[in-house]
UniProtKB/TrEMBL annotation:
Binding site for Mg(2+): E118, D178, I180, D181, D350
Keyword annotations from UniProtKB, A to Z: Hydrolase, Magnesium, Metal-binding
Similarity comment: Belongs to the inositol monophosphatase superfamily.
Name recorded for this polypeptide: PAP-specific phosphatase, mitochondrial
Keyword DNA-binding applies: no
Biological process terms in GO annotation: sulfate assimilation
Keyword Oxidoreductase carried by entry: no
PROSITE patterns: IMP_1
Annotated GO MF terms: 3'(2'),5'-bisphosphate nucleotidase activity; metal ion binding
PANTHER family documented for this protein: PAP-SPECIFIC PHOSPHATASE, MITOCHONDRIAL-RELATED, PHOSPHATASE
Cofactor(s) required, per the database record: Mg(2+)
Length: 412
């Protein structure tokens, strides 16, 4: 691989004392004698064991993000199709289209690797929307994809369904996909983040992850919820793609309007706070600060300029879990904490890709007892995780402090 590094610069990477600041290393590169798609990765092939897999994942997640943007444009101009599943969660043509698109592209390149994903085609068939999904997929599929039929699309969706593959108790290799994490955000015009999330698990270990957030605004995370609402009309999120590879770090670049654009990658690191009241928190949209253990010691505020010593800054990021992982991995937030409710099923695809992105950025993810999240706890399907108490995602510096508070408050 003939790679010419034409420019490397460090931006707020180390201060004079040798301490890592929240920031990035920006890598600009030219690639000779290679297809432009190959240039989408920020690390050379010899340093990345799963280079082909992450290259394909980057390409298909970018295509999926463009599918989302196309469907969303149609949704708000024509009324579109917004459906409600039996668990009262919304689903759109984009959810099914993304799953079909990613399933088709990955199966073409890696036919022996099964897919674990959120949707199946039964609901879609019952609403007679296969042709609409087919059109959305055809518009964004790669040029090497054969002409598609409705059956192709339906079968591709079902390849990730709950009955498609039985794993058993041994370590396994498989893709984990959340076609749209935060569909409620997808449905809120431009006012909420949503994520396409794809991870590869090899013999029980997450080795690569790709997240696409079509309406990410670079400066958005520095604003309070009130500022976001006030300034939204002047913000135009260009979108972002975040990738992580075991041992190669976490990186981001803008979601280009051109799928073959190489772009400029920025290496991501978690932020630095090691004092709780200086940290920035994210919590699930369905939960309140008062329902979490830290509320007995700290109240929450959304006013970044007036955070007292007995308060924490609570960011409004909406919707779903993966955008919170993206916030922590990029250094925009310090902590994401989720309580495992008694009747709520926690799905693997809501966490897998976020876990490796945070880990490779220097952060930490465990359950509320400090144990690693077991993706294989659901032996047969690999679809459900069972974190004790909940999920804790931090910059690493604050992890043990938060765990101690959780432990102490649970004993009261």
């Amino acid at each position: 691989m003939d790679v010419l590094l034409s420019h490397v610069s460090a931006v707020r990477f180390f201060d004079g004392a040798g301490t890592r600041n929240r920031g990035c290393t920006t890598l600009r590169f030219n690639v000779r004698s290679l297809p432009s798609k190959t240039a989408t990765l920020p690390f050379p092939q010899q340093n990345a064991k799963y280079y082909k897999e992450i290259e394909a994942a980057v390409d298909v997640v970018q295509r999926a993000c463009h599918l989302c943007l196309n469907v969303k444009s149609s949704l708000f101009s024509t009324g579109g199709n917004v459906l409600e599943k039996t668990d009262q969660t919304p689903v759109t043509v984009a959810d099914f289209g993304v799953q079909a698109l990613i399933s088709l592209e990955l199966n073409k390149l890696f036919p022996s690797i099964p897919l674990v994903a959120e949707e199946d085609s039964a609901f879609l068939r019952s609403r007679n929307l296969a042709d609409t999904v087919l059109n959305a997929v055809t518009a964004t599929a790669s040029s090497t994809c054969k002409p598609l039929t409705q059956d192709d699309v339906l079968e591709a969706i079902d390849r990730g369904g709950k009955d498609a593959f039985v794993f058993g108790s041994k370590p396994a290799t498989y893709w984990v996909l959340d076609p749209i994490d935060g569909t409620r955000g997808f449905l809120k015009a431009s006012k909420a983040l949503y994520v396409v999330g794809l991870a590869l698990v090899v013999e029980g270990e997450i080795v690569i992850g790709v997240m696409g957030c079509p309406n990410w605004e670079e400066d958005l995370s520095e604003k309070s919820s009130a500022e976001i609402e006030e300034d939204w009309d002047s913000l135009r999120g260009s979108g972002t793609v975040m990738i992580a590879h075991k041992g190669c770090g976490t990186w981001m670049k803008s979601l280009s309007s051109q799928l073959e654009s190489p772009g400029v990658w920025t290496r991501c690191f978690v932020d630095e706070p090691d004092i709780i009241h200086k940290a920035r928190f994210c919590i699930p949209d369905s939960q309140t600060w008062e329902s979490l253990p830290l509320s007995s010691l700290f109240s929450a505020t959304s006013d970044a300029d007036n955070v007292g010593s007995n308060q924490i800054l609570l960011l409004g990021t909406c919707c779903g879990s993966l955008c919170k992982y993206l916030m922590v991995a990029s250094g925009r937030a310090s902590i994401f904490i989720l309580r495992a409710k008694e009747k709520t099923i926690i799905k693997a695809w809501d966490h897998a890709v976020g876990m490796i992105c945070v880990h490779e950025a220097g952060g930490k993810v465990t359950d509320w007892k400090g144990s690693e999240i077991d993706l294989a706890a659901d032996h047969a399907g690999r679809r459900i995780i069972f974190p004790s108490g909940g999920v804790l995602v931090t910059n690493g510096n604050l992890h043990d402090q938060i765990l101690r508070i959780i432990y102490q408050t649970s004993r009261v």
